[in-house]
Amino acid sequence: MISYFQDYVTIGAVLGFGLFLVVLLLGVASVLRPNKPYAEKLQTYECGVDPVGTGWSQTYVRYYIFGLLFVIFDVEAVFIFPWAINLEKLGYFGLIEMFVFIFILLIGLIYAIRKDVLKWES
Amino acid sequence: MVDLILFFIPSALIIIGALIVVFAKNPVHNAMGLVMTLVSIAIIYITLNATFVAMVQMLVYAGAVMTLFLFVIMMIGVDKKEQSSESIKGQTFLVSGVFLILISILGYVAISSEFKWDLWFEAVEFAVEGTPQLIAGTLFTAWIFPFEIISILLIVATAAAIALAYDSKRKKNDV
Amino acid sequence: MSIELIISLVKANIVLAVLLTNTILLIWFERKVVAGMQSRVGPDRAGPFGILQTLADAIKLLLKEQILPSKADRAMYLLAPLIALVPSFLIFMIIPLGPDITVEWQNALYTIPLVGADLNVGVLYFLALSSIAVYSVVLAGWSSGSKYPLLGGVRASAQMISYEAAMGLALVPVILYSGSLSLVDIVNSQSGNLSSSIPILNTIVSFIPKWNIFPQFVAFGIFFIAAVAEVNRAPFDLVEAEQELVGGFHTEYSGFRFAMFFLAEYINMFNMCAITATFFLGGWLGPTFEGILPPIFSVIMPIIWLGVKTFLLLFVFVWIRATLPRLRYDQLMELGWKRMIPLSLVWLILSAIVLGLREFGLPWS
Q: Would you say residue A37 lies in a domain?
């Protein structure tokens, strides 16, 4: 049992020690550092003038497209990885089925490029 | 003992994350609660020896899908007011009904099993090296047709997103 | 306490100690190299050759006031530096530092692999943690409640996810050759020398080690460029484009929380170089000079080889930073999506065909 979990126990230990270290350093800092906040100091930076609005403006819809394309390529990668480690067993059949898969997704990418979606015009 | 701890800590995190999703007012906090839930589910997968599924969970759900959610939240604008009125008539009533049914099913299962929750399943012999290989072995032979369908699904999603975001009426001067 | 648990805990402590010492060295190394390239002296006051400069900076940042902007979203503002730093510790875990070593303790032999954690899904683990690290940038930018960090954060995250897709696809040919997602197996698959079925070619290539960089030079190029973009280094440092975005996502951070972002950036840079060395440059493989050097060197030499390769790549990172001007954002995204991802897909198909021909013979025979 432990032989399988040992690697994950080590990861958990690094996670624990890492968090402990960070919290410890932040704790030390909170004892040592000065703390004199006042309203002007707590303003957000805006080129030295008083900030306007909330700072939480809407972002451009284009980021959404990139996010979605990333999800699609991530899912694709998740399918390609197990295929890659098993290619020797799958033979030419496996090769061709993955080519079909990649080809269909390439069409999607080409469609996006042709639609000028990936062009960052201003 | 160890297995109980390994089960209860991630489970507690899952439930806390889910509660944040439901009750936090700020949409970014909701999203991060969901990330917490998804990562904790990945930990449960690891304890169940399903490392490949755990990593996919982290990579696709906690990584990619939630980043997309955050982009959407920021596109809409975080300081927009939450809509608190009912958009479907009687939705509060319906949801409470479904919730009650779920709770009673869970309660029935718990009572009928006389609270003997056996967390130790029959030990299944896994080849530790096996998980990704096993998944690949079946996925690319027995489930080849659904696998190819997935690529069609993904391309439909791409086309739909492009059509949604770039219709002809779109305003030139978005922020 | 079982012996396995003790090994795990000791390993965890060693990993953290190595990473932090390395970062101190690395920041000094970068400043010295950049200074040399710009005909400056660089840090030379603290310690010999200024090697303790980073430590002095860290102590200084520890003593500085931390300002929590009044408009900031408190919880997320405090969480973001943690999400930046902790995944960078965890990525280092899967890098193999050497072959298994055998230790005798209380009349029993223990085989300890010189790797933090040898996961059978190592490559996916690396990609998953890189995508978790994106949150630190988005959250830091968003939670500050200020305009420049928000712009920097969203830009940075879009950049990171774009190049992560290319990075994942560039790794597939490597996995095709090794047949495993474990980094230990990937290093082992690169041992030995190249061979060719053509006799004349064989005599030439048989002196070259079987590192992935030689057959997979395109994948190496894509992966390395993506690695530079993934850790937001120049020429892809639009995140903190000082001239337009002030400081990017960490504009509103100060004191030790700022230091955490800084630390995470350098640890990530180190991780990326070590992982590139592992995937493409044979990792810890190299001559151990057995018989010439004392036996202890058979343990130390692999670590030295990995260190040499990693610092060579780090030198290239710094060199690029000192040489190339920053890209424009539209150029950056077009490079990622229109060049690197299609190229990596085509390269993946080509390598699969070559591998198929070699393993299964011609399809009609």
A: yes
Rounded Cα distance between C223 and C338, Å, is: 16
What ipTM does this complex have?
0.87
Q: CA triplet C148, C330, C153: central angle to 5 degrees?
A: 25
pLDDT of residue A1: 42
- Does any domain span residue A122? no
Instruction: Specify if A34 maps to a domain.
Output: yes
Q: What is the CATH number of the domain that holds A60?
A: 1.20.58.1610
Residue A118 above 60 pLDDT? yes
Name the token pair of C154.
């969203």
Handedness of CA C319, C323, C327, C332 (dihedral sign): negative
Phi and psi torsions of B166, nearest 5°: -125, 45
Q: Rounded mean pLDDT of chain B?
A: 79
Where do the structural domains in chain C lie, given as residue ranges? Answer: 70-360
User: Is the Cβ pair C75, B29 closer than 8 Å?
Assistant: yes
Cβ within 8 Å, pair B51-C120:
yes
B120 touching A (Cβ < 8 Å): no
For C44-182, where are the alpha helices, taking DSSP H only? 53-62, 74-92, 122-143, 147-178
Q: What is the pLDDT of residue A83?
A: 87
> Is residue A120 within 8 angstroms of chain B, CB to CB?
no
Q: How far apart are CA C25 and CA A2, in angstroms?
A: 36
Q: Which of B155, B170, B171, B174 to mutate to test the interface with A (most CBs of A within 10 A)?
A: B155
C193 beta partners: C209
User: B141 CB contacts (<8 Å, ≥6 apart)?
Assistant: A90
Segments forming the whole domain that contains residue A55: 2-114
Structural domain total, chain A: 1
Residue A120 domain-assigned (yes or no):
no
Q: What are the chain C neighbours of B135 within 8 Å (beta carbons)? A: none
Contacts of B73 (CB under 8 A, 6+ apart): B27, B28, B31
Q: What is the rounded CA–CA span in Å between residue C197 and residue C178?
A: 20
Per-residue model confidence (pLDDT) at position B117: 58
pTM for this structure? 0.88
The answer to whether the CB atoms of B132 and A57 lie below 8 A apart is no
Taking 70 as the pLDDT cut, the residues of chain C under it are: 1, 239-247, 363-365
Which of C127, C176, C333 has its CB closest to that of A118?
A: C333
CA distance C100 to C110: 10
- CA distances from residue C155 to B7, C136, C150 in whole angstroms, order as listed: 38, 13, 8
Tokens 């996670």, residue located: A15
Measure CB to CB from residue C161 to each of B35, B39, B67 and give the nearest one.
B67
